[in-house]
């Protein structure tokens, strides 16, 4: 929903009724993940995507019907369909799409959900997409961590027992940043099901802390902002660490890097999704900083810029400072993937590519040089024998 949030909010606040199509489950090489949305407004304008173009026309037709009737639909698209080539999903994937009509009447809680997303507060929306009682299908339940202090207008899935079950599961999914199905079985399962709930999560933005207020950092900050990170730039030199030099950063901190990271650690503002990019390229900054960074229990990525000679010197200094071999193995140095990058922009792409690959457990190799499924989730399923 984030992809169409601005347009959805504008139409919802104006009283317009729109059709919202959401991917709720995928199998094999489906092009978009659960949670991907496409919006069709009352004028017929299309915003967003559920398949990167494969089945957009078919979903559009369904959305216009749902917008007219108000009756939600759950539809599967994939190679198992007789008309797979007609709708265009010839990639071998399968996706289930939930299409519903959204308005101020049908989704009164949307305004508060949007406020949460805008202010980077974690929130999840659970929608009942399958139930033995058709009158309950389409009901919603909004879930927030207790720390948000917002329990107004949460809605309900129709029973306190189901709300409680989904509440606990949705909090777990918020923590991991995943959207997906909760219920007696997955869509497409051959077993008899009475309940299926789709939980769309909107966790806080993951953090990226960039140490070193240099031109390479400026390029990385711009790209990180585009990728959805909440970005902090930290440097001990006030003449370089200015907001005007890093307009895309959420904050610019003038502080010795190792001291700032220790403060953030002690305040519990570093978590398993946090990315640390050390671009200081100066031993007096990066060695004490990396002593702190590599001893963090949970962090998504720690990378440091420099040549191989710089890395070897830095590693020797870290070992001398007491950093263990296990801790040193957490360091991505030299930072980035082998793209032949030269300019700050190219280097930023190299670093971001490595971060993305690390996040998804991917190899970073050229896809044309590999075989098997493109998406890492499907590769993992094959490995498990699914």
Automatic annotation (TrEMBL):
The record places domain XdhC- CoxI at: 12-78, 118-182
Ranges where the XdhC Rossmann domain occurs: 208-355
Q: Which domain of life is it from?
A: Bacteria
Stretches that traverse the bilayer: none
This one is known as XdhC family protein
Originating species: Nocardioides cavernae
